[in-house]
Write the structure tokens for this entry.
Amino acid sequence: MPQFEYKVVPAPRRGEKAREAKTTEERYALALTNLMNEMGRDGWQYLRADTLPVDERVGFTGTKTSYQNMLVFQRDVVASARVEAVAAAARILSVDAGPAATPKLGPAEKPAAGVAPAIGPASSAEVAAE
């Protein structure tokens, strides 16, 4: 029998700006899509959305009840352990392969050999040569 673990995250409160999302609904849908895709990459499967009451403090002695929209995700514990093991093995293999060739910084070509011009005020011989 599969064993599941659960993760509950708050639903986005605002949409995300994007060129293709013009309306409020489209922006909110984009924010929700990005959150769900991010959770899916980590192996979490969307289960449901719930609105739950939360008691908040107001002033020194008062309380007020507000409602929070939460998204519930689940994943199989055994399957997630396998995914983690494969990811760890991939990281080890990439480290064993050695670092990727990194570009060297510096001039594109070796400078030509020669004498650098003197720095400072011009001498009278240089002025006469011109």
